[in-house]
Amino acid sequence: MKAKESNAHFDSKVRECSNFTVREIKKICKEIGPRPAGEENEQKAQDYVENLMGGIADTVQRESFDVHPKAFMSWVMIDGIGMIIASVLMILAHLNVVPQASGAFRVAAIVISAVAVILLLAEFLFYKEFIDFLFPKRTSSNVICTRKAAGETKRRIIFAGHIDSAYEWRFTHLGGGKFLVTMIILGIGSLVLTLIMAVLSMFIDNGVPAIVMTVVQALTIPAFIAVLFFMNWKVCVMGANDNLTGVMASMAVIKYLNDNNIRFENTEVVAVSTGCEECGLRGAKAFAEAHAKEYAADGTETVFMAVDTLHDYDYLGVYNKDMSGLVKLDEKAAKMARKATEICGLDIPFATVSFGSSDAAAGQQGGIKSVALAAMDPTPARYYHTREDTADILDMKTIETGLKIMLETAFLFDEQGLCDKY
Question: CA distances (Å), 26 to each of 50, 238, 274, 391, in order?
């Protein structure tokens, strides 16, 4: 049975659940506000979800985990400071200001530049907890809401969104997505260029090439100074769209089933509000670490759908690649979600998270078959990680369509499980 066949008034029932989604998002924004990862407001928001779902889900569990929230994006400032120092050392070496130390300056610049590249790759590209131990520890949590199967549990589908909101990215706020991309290209390009020139300077230390490298190196310094202002740690954004839409749409799936007295015979439906996604997918990583082996051991076919930022209808997509395209999500899960969009009468393409990552990457890497559903301009959108991400710009059409896709995915999974073809 398809979800749209589960109720004679399916569209109006989904609209009720979409209204629930929007109403609860507005309440959280008004009563709690921004929710920085690992901080008090994030926990207040999880309290809210836990209490809200107590009367809707069969069970509600709270699982805590340790996190170092400021580590993930602090590498940006560390790299910026380090590269300013490396640039100055390179200029001093080229100008031979301290002849006896020029060689040491070049070596130091190479080491600093290499460390900066490692931080970029480890913390941002691969989301590793590389420098977390250097930063204060906090406690965060995931809230896990479950609607049990009527009989023996043979399948389990998990919908997840993250409750935390990001600290503001200044360049997106000041100039939008294109300006952000330009500044990122300048910063990373200057970093790589410095490393290359530092290595070359070991072999070229005079003449016209050295002069050219000195001038070019001086020109990189403004880019590194700009990097220091990438994060606005004084402003945590509201995150109404990124990603209260994902959290509350996930909860709305269980609400729809509960309100319409639908209980799958052999499929358990789970909605998870994860913490600390904005500081490196830490909540989803903790969830996968806590449950992947359990799911594998109980023999229950399990799929995890991360739902993130249901706002830009024209960019609604099923994501089969994640973590800047480096993580391939589960092929069967992606095909299933794609089929669900077809059932909804849509022609939605597969997409790639080409910049950043979603909780689906953590789920997949952690051993749970995963896929992502999102609707955000990948430029990225003007509201992405800025104070513009408020409840005032919620888009009901996108939220409602996303919820229909999620419901059709759940019904399709209950009926067929994961298949090569649908």
Answer: 17, 10, 19, 6
